[in-house]
Amino acid sequence: MLESERETFVHYLRSGAYKPSSIRSYSNYVSALLNVATKSGWVAPLFEVSKEWRNVWNVADAPSSRQIIRFAVKLGKKPNSLSEDDLTAWRLDSHHFLSADVASPLPELVDNCI
Fold this sequence. Notes:
Low-confidence stretches: none
Number of helices: 6
């Protein structure tokens, strides 16, 4: 989970009231933990972007958009079936890493790639 949520966590820290030094420290702690885990034999699971999502993934540069794509793939959703309810479920599942009032650019990206 740490590996897959790192981008979103750092984005969350940057959007809050955290100083750059705190963000660096938290990022370093995550990296150190992942390094120890890797040295102990842990292998991060690879995320395979499905054919349906590949075009959207390639243009999605916001961490939140990639997290939503991962969530959608986990649910078995295709780009043309992703709904506002799915985005709400992602917000709830992401444990407030991204505030619900922050709009994701993903819906527009999906529309442009379909």
